[in-house]
Write a structure and sequence with these properties.
Elements (H helix, E strand, L loop, with lengths): L4 E9 L6 H18 L3 E8 L1 E6 L9 H4 L18 H11 L3 E6 L5 E6 L4
Parallel strand pairs: 1-2
Antiparallel strand pairs: 2-3, 3-5, 4-5
Helix pairs in contact: 1-3
Length: 121
């Protein structure tokens, strides 16, 4: 409805043991963040035991990656939109609960990729 394009990708997706509701909520939060703060294109990728959501928006300063996964933290650019700063904090909690690695990285020249990399539990 708002001109965003979500592209799923997962030719070699694996399986993970996880709490389904928690995982669905984490994925929904990542996609919602990309819709609100990212550019026009969003890519959701499942590869092996990793799941990532990437956007082509303005990106985030890498020095702030740890900060934005804390509860109630919103960057200045996000203050004009609705939200309480809990989206990535919840994703962090889901990752911690499942002993998954949460990795934030720059997507090409701009944008943000957030990856949940699950290990065998």
């Amino acid at each position: 409805d708002n001109g965003k394009r979500i592209v799923p990708s997962g030719p070699d997706a694996g399986t993970v043991q996880a709490d389904r509701r928690m995982l669905v909520q984490a994925i929904a939060n990542l996609i919602q963040n990309a819709i609100v703060h990212g550019g026009a294109n969003i890519e959701v990728t499942a590869s092996g035991q990793a799941l990532s959501v990437a956007d082509d928006g303005p990106g985030v300063d890498p020095d702030l990656y740890d900060e934005i996964t804390k509860p109630m933290v919103r960057l200045d650019a996000a203050r004009a939109t609705e939200g309480a700063g809990l989206g990535l904090a919840l994703v962090r909690a889901v990752a911690d609960r499942h002993r998954a690695e949460l990795r934030l990285s720059a997507e090409d020249a701009h944008g943000l990729r957030v990856t949940l990399n699950f290990t065998d539990m």
